[in-house]
Amino acid sequence: MKRPMMISLLGLPLWLVAGFAMALALGQPLEFESEAQQRQYDSLVRELRCTVCQSETIHESNAELAADMRRRVYEMTLAGHDGDAIIDFMVQRYGDYVRYRPPLQANTYLLWASPFLLLFGGIIAWWRIIVGRRSMPQRPDFTEQERAQLEQLRNDGSPRRM
Fold it and tell me: What does the UniProt keyword field contain (predicted)?
């Protein structure tokens, strides 16, 4: 038997185990009573943030907490709760951070204003740099002796040693 073929045959059980593990991770397909429930569930799991992963929705995350949150959204959707009620429940349980689009309220003003504050600060810094450059003298003021030395250097082409 050729060596590459042997390696492939030895790797086959590993590929089978990996495929089986991935199939288990996907879980069973969810069943809904109506398409409206399916749309609500899909919308909510893409809107709620995994508080463990912090940069992923609960739809994308493989964390146990995300799986628990997906299960809870599924159960509440089947029980007939609307999207706002489910989001309110998640916010009460995990805080405003669980929402990818937090509402505009007193404790999130800085979050919403920060892009504009950073832009404004950048404009001020840029303006100060530009104005600072304009106020700098174009030619430095030299004494008559320094001007004579500069003129001599220009004419000689080589610096004098002192």
Answer: Cytochrome c-type biogenesis, Heme, Iron, Membrane, Metal-binding, Signal, Transmembrane, Transmembrane helix
